[in-house]
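Objective 1.3, modelling of assemblies. Example input:
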Amino acid sequence: MESRNSQLLREMFDLLLGHFGPQNWWPGDTGLEMMVGAVLTQNTNWKNVQKAIENLKQKNLLSLEALKALSLEELAREIRPSGYYNIKAKRLRNLLGFLADRYEADLEQFLEDTTEALREGLLSVNGIGPETADSILLYAAQRPIFVIDTYTHRILYRHGMIGEEAGYYELQDLFMDHLPADPGFFNEFHALIVRLGKEYCRKVPRCDVCPLLQWGPMPPDSNTA
DNA sequence: CACCAGGCAAGTA
DNA sequence: TACTTGCATGGT
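Predicted structure (tokens):
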């Protein structure tokens, strides 16, 4: 019995794909664009991130050389629409420094490294946590890593598949231990989860009963007044 | 007007 | 170790 979780997750994916269709997420043109997007989207609507990225693109600043040449103030001004622009400018700067130190500022070199080394390195950068690191691994480097976010936690919790206190890696293992390691599949699944979260699985008290996935109980969030 | 968004780090006890 | 707070714009 290839575990009940495996069945649930596959059923979940089929329902979501059938209902929403393919999401075609992260249509970033380059690896660098997706890495920058991964940082800029921290706790931020993707639409705001697009504006920031568009600013960089229009001024031909979306390259390692051009970004490195910008002062922190200039960089912050360009990414202003993405919010938290001062701290995100620093974080992008930290990421650029990491690429320079470890990979000679060569994205090809970066993308050839092992998944384990990349992940460990990315997590050592101030401003890059588990989700940002995994987003870069999945989208930019196309590694079979499942990205966990707040929606994933909320949805699985409300459907009784995890405890409320479950951590990032507990959730990630749930997906990665029970599903085939396919980057395209992980990409689509994560995008569909976010889509479901946005439309149906919001915070209490604006939480509706999910119309798609009704196989489990749906407890409220205890820590949201 | 309030609330939220593909998080993370620093400060506090 | 376990909470709490700062970061900030733009859309509903």
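The first helix of chain A runs from residue 4 to 20.
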